[in-house]
Design a protein that fits this description.
The protein has three helices and 20 strands. It is mostly beta strands.
Length: 358
């Protein structure tokens, strides 16, 4: 990896001898910062697949691959602590994947059954947490967890009616995913009592002469990884006249309970969502009546947030000022937070689509 270094220069002054705010436009969160950070990386992501087809309608496979998610600099950390490489930088996330599966066709290709088992081995997995900055403040940043594992299985089944049913064609499909996730090695040093309470553990350590807690998230499940998930679809199409088809279809999505963060203290409940559509279509146009979120379910499906930011607001901090000494400070310890996003309510509408050109 070829890594550049941060650069710094003397304050840029205007005609009155006052420092110019952010002269290079490099840091809008900390306008007095005149530094920049650069990084570059390159890697090789191999994949090997072995396939075996004992019959025309059956194929089994085994695959192994290595993947890599690039590292970088945490903008959240820059916003509270400026351009510090030691605090803001996080390393690439690496993963090895093993997968064993099969694809099969049955009943004259009217029934398709596919399945797979897989194992994902993460190293230096990127996760949002809190860490101690160079100036002793706790800052929000992306941290590299030591290791994580994901065991999983997928099964999908689709069936198409080989013969007409009441003059039309029926298709049914569904897919289920099972996950078993775990952080197998994830510790971080923290001076925040809020983070220690959320983690539920604290091993005293001394870092840079300061007594801190080493918090362990080892054994926790990965965030936003439901143990079970299902999606399905039913479609019935009936030819009305030459070129005009009537159809009615519905699809369903289910997700199991899943955690919102690495602490596993906040979670989103399991939910179902059903959509419905009925309409007419040709090669050139489509007219349909649709209902989204048929059950008008308001279970939270998505969330966002971050870790506690202990001692993250320091008024007059020298990290944000040019050649000035701070005169006062306010130390705070904000709690962990998470924002839940409500799904759209039931929506009933009419849509007309037209296709132009060849």
């Amino acid at each position: 990896m070829d890594t550049g270094s941060g650069t710094s220069s003397a304050p840029v002054l205007d005609a009155n001898g006052r420092a110019v705010v952010n002269p290079a436009g490099t840091d809008m969160f900390n306008p007095w910062c005149r530094s920049s950070l650069t990084d570059s990386d390159q890697w090789f992501s191999p994949k090997i697949t072995l396939k075996w087809g004992p019959a025309d309608n059956t194929m089994y496979y085994f695959s192994w691959s290595k993947a890599r998610k690039p590292g970088g600099f945490s903008l959240l950390t820059v916003g509270s602590s400026g351009l510090s490489r030691d605090v803001t930088e996080f390393e690439p996330e690496k993963m090895e994947v093993w997968e064993l599966g099969g694809k099969t066709d049955w009943l004259d290709n009217s029934l398709v059954i596919n399945g797979a088992f897989f194992f994902q081995d993460f190293t230096d997995k990127q996760a949002l947490t809190s860490a101690l900055g160079n100036d002793g403040r706790l800052v929000s940043k992306i941290e590299n967890a030591g290791a994580a594992e994901v065991w999983g299985a997928e099964l999908s089944v689709s069936w198409f009616s080989p013969n007409e049913i009441f003059g039309g064609n029926l298709s049914v499909g569904g897919a289920y995913t099972w996950l078993d996730t775990e952080y197998t090695d994830f510790t971080v040093a923290s001076g925040s009592s809020v983070n220690a309470a959320a983690a539920g553990n604290c091993t005293p350590v001394v870092v840079g002469g300061e007594s801190l807690c080493e918090l362990s998230y080892t054994g926790n499940q990965l965030e936003d990884a439901p143990p079970g998930a299902f999606n399905g679809n039913i479609n019935y199409t009936f030819p009305m006249t030459d070129g005009v088809d009537f159809y009615v279809e519905t699809d369903a999505i289910w997700q199991d309970k899943r955690f919102a963060g690495v602490t596993n203290n906040l979670w989103m409940d399991a939910y179902w969502n059903f959509d419905f559509r009925i309409g007419f279509q040709t090669e050139r146009w489509e007219a349909l009546l649709y209902v989204n979120n048929v059950l008008d379910d308001d279970t939270i499906q998505m969330s966002g947030g971050g870790p506690g930011l202990g001692c993250c607001f320091v008024l007059g901090s020298s990290i944000d000022l040019a050649e000035q000494v701070p005169t006062s400070a306010v130390m705070v310890d904000l709690p962990l937070f998470s924002t839940g996003f409500l799904p759209p309510p039931r929506v009933v509408g009419f849509r007309l689509n037209a296709r132009f050109g060849g």
